């Protein structure tokens, strides 16, 4: 079954920059792929289009929003579907900046998507704690973001993206700002999570090492406008994660 299908997708911004395409990509459910390419080639644009945060200028976008089905999520050119990326729509997004709310606890930060989805408080709290445990932060639910290291903030951001149990996890250079050791630990923990949870992951990175280490497929993009230059299957003998 397919998680994501992009057909002939292009993106021209209002300022005349053509960022993407034509771009064709299919991702199977449960696959872990990396998008690799020079800065400005349209990787973030591709992720935002998949997430429904940005509308393509042309082409067709289909995204499996819920477990078990690919819905015909055709995004009309020039029209962003309202609420497409809202909780419950099967997409989790992790950015390079953890973008946590500083005035409230780690648990409340992770619970936010469930609040927006009007999940009852006790249930939401339990699910937030479960998501925090899955990223190794069971003991930090009551802490405040400022008390955490960069790597821990990224873990909170990951827990927040996973708390709605999305089908698809989109990650835009999530670990780029972290030191090498923290980054390597996060790589390993992300792999273990992927194996356990069976999510579809699309991981944008500048790191060839990271793309090969993490993913089953490395999709290399051309410089702007971003097209697919190579789509490489990574074979491993060792089990992942
Ligand atoms: P990448 O993630 O590969 O670095 P982006 O998708 O962020 O690339 O950007 C691709 C190109 O589109 C860049 O030239 C960038 O400056 C431009 N761009 C990105 N977002 C916008 C926007 N909102 N408005 C205008 N141009 C944009
Ligand atoms: P990255 O390389 O990490 O993807 P970018 O610098 O491409 O980051 O983009 C960061 C943000 O700035 C994005 O949300 C993008 O939409 C916006 N952006 C990037 N380039 C432009 C631009 N030329 N005009 C307007 N917004 C832009």
TrEMBL record:
Signal sequence bounds: none
Organism phylogeny: Bacteria, Pseudomonadati, Pseudomonadota, Alphaproteobacteria, Hyphomicrobiales
Keyword Phosphoprotein: no
Job description of the protein: Involved in beta-(1-->2)glucan export. Transmembrane domains (TMD) form a pore in the inner membrane and the ATP-binding domain (NBD) is responsible for energy generation.
Family membership: Belongs to the ABC transporter superfamily.
Organism: Bradyrhizobium diversitatis
This protein's name: ABC transporter ATP-binding protein
ABC transporter domain segment(s): 4-241
Annotated coiled-coil segments of the chain: none
GO MF annotation, one: ATP binding
Keywords attached to this entry: ATP-binding, Nucleotide-binding, Transport
